[in-house]
């Protein structure tokens, strides 16, 4: 395996990395190609990840977590993604988009009800926010929730929901007061088996195959009022602060893909012979390796710095541009890295016997999910402009 610069993240995080890397090497990486081919998540991994203790890294011990924080969560996602980016994506959707949102915004009763089973891996979690016509413009969603006695009746649909059809617990956003605009949005916790909740077939995607992604349908779906997350009308605050942490944490997924690229390329340039010598002996190839390595390390440094910032305080507006910046840079560099890995392997890089094509297909998702590269650039520029006015 390719090794990089030690970043002095602390003994606990370094031990966590070793543990997760060993698990991913044994339990995930050998299955990565088959997961991609079948486009199915290996469900038994949830309980194994729960037993490993990585499903609640940002959750306090009171609710079954370890409370190690966001940097630790990044490192776990990085190493899982090194084994399989699609497993890493489903892991991130569960442990960050659902579990962390619930831990940050839930009442004590809500946390006691759902977090222990989510953290143990008994439950699968998801977040249902985007819609077919409300992706980048997420506040343009059309899903509605109407109060009916002690319950809310939800109607609408969601799209591109990672873990959606498998989820036991799903955080769903809907407008309780459409006329109020952003102040009329509310988050709900919807349980599996709720009448009116259904999922379509999981999507046949270009990459991240095996990270099950579904359309979700809500038809007169009745949810108890005690399932409101963060208060009625507070959904925009919950959503936007959650997006910052989502971008920050998911930036570690591309780091894992970059590491996987190096894991493929380094042995190959020793083994592959042309013109009577290993291709790694050619200066052009050494230059390519140097560019890949330095890009990987620079990306790690930025993402880890953002992870440390997440751990220093509760959500701060100043975090927003760098959470977007970290995933913007890491995502685009991971796609570039996978492209370079294909080039290094030449003809072999273009056939599915080797993982480089899968790595490229998986990396591309991170330029689209959790806000496209274009949205991230807009957000960063807006934040920088507002700081100088």
Structure notes:
With 389 residues, the chain is an alpha+beta fold. Helix content is 51%, strand content 14%. The chain has helices at 11-28, 32-38, 45-52, 70-83, 85-105, 108-120, 235-250, 252-271, 283-312, 319-345, 356-365, 373-387; strands spanning 125-128, 144-148, 151-162, 169-175, 185-191, 197-199, 213-224, 228-229, 273-274, 277-278. Strands 1-4-5-8 form a four-stranded mixed β-sheet. The protein has a four-stranded antiparallel β-sheet with strand order 2-3-7-6, covered by helices on one side. A two-stranded antiparallel ribbon has the order 9-10. A hairpin with a 2-residue loop joins strand 2 and strand 3 (151-162). Helix 4 runs antiparallel to helix 5 (85-105), helix 4 packs parallel to helix 8 (252-271) and helix 8 runs antiparallel to helix 9 (283-312).
Top keywords for this entry?
51% helix, globular, 12 helices, alpha+beta, 14% strand, 389 residues, four-stranded mixed sheet, four-stranded antiparallel sheet
Chain-wise SSE layout:
Blueprint: H1 11-28, H2 32-38, H3 45-52, H4 70-83, H5 85-105, H6 108-120, E1 125-128, E2 144-148, E3 151-162, E4 169-175, E5 185-191, E6 197-199, E7 213-224, E8 228-229, H7 235-250, H8 252-271, E9 273-274, E10 277-278, H9 283-312, H10 319-345, H11 356-365, H12 373-387
Parallel strand pairs: 1-4
Antiparallel strand pairs: 2-3, 3-7, 4-5, 5-8, 6-7, 9-10
Helix pairs in contact: 1-4, 4-5, 4-7, 4-8, 4-9, 5-6, 5-7, 7-10, 8-9, 8-10, 8-11, 9-10, 10-11, 10-12
């Amino acid at each position: 395996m390719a090794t990089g610069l030690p970043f002095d993240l602390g003994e606990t995080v370094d031990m966590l990395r070793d543990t997760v890397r060993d698990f991913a090497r044994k339990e995930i990486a050998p299955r990565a190609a088959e997961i991609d081919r079948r486009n199915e998540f290996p469900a038994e991994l949830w309980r194994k990840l729960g037993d490993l203790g990585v499903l609640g890294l940002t959750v306090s011990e009171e609710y079954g977590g370890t409370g190690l924080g966001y940097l630790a969560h990044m490192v776990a996602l990085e190493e899982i993604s090194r084994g399989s980016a699609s497993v890493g994506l489903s892991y991130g959707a569960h442990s960050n988009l659902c579990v962390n949102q619930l831990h940050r915004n839930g009442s004590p009763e809500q946390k006691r009800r759902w977090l222990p089973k989510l953290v143990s891996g008994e439950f699968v979690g998801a977040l249902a926010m985007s819609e077919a016509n409300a992706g980048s413009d997420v506040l343009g969603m059309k899903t509605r929730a109407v109060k009916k006695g002690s319950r809310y009746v939800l109607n609408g649909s969601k799209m591109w929901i990672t873990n959606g059809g498998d989820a036991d617990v799903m955080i769903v956003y809907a407008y309780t007061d459409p006329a109020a605009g952003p102040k009329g949005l509310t988050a709900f916790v919807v349980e599996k088996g709720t009448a009116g909740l259904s999922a379509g077939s999981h999507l046949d995607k270009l990459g991240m195959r095996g990270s099950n992604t579904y359309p979700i349908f809500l038809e007169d779906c009745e949810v108890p009022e005690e399932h409101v997350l963060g208060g009625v009308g507070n959904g925009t605050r919950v959503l936007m602060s959650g997006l910052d942490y989502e971008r920050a944490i998911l930036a570690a997924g591309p780091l894992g893909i970059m590491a996987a690229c190096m894991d493929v390329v380094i042995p190959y340039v020793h083994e592959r012979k042309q013109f009577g010598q290993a291709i790694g002996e050619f200066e052009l190839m050494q230059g390519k390796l140097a560019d890949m390595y330095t890009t990987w390390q620079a990306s790690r440094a930025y993402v880890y710095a953002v992870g440390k910032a997440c751990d220093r305080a509760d959500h701060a507006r100043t975090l927003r541009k760098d959470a977007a910046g970290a995933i913007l840079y890491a995502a685009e560099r991971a796609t570039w890295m996978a492209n370079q890995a294909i080039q290094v392997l030449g003809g072999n890089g273009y056939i599915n016997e080797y993982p480089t094509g899968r790595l490229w297909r998986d990396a591309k998702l991170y330029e689209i999910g959790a806000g496209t590269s274009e949205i991230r650039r807009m957000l960063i520029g807006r934040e920088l402009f507002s700081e100088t006015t």
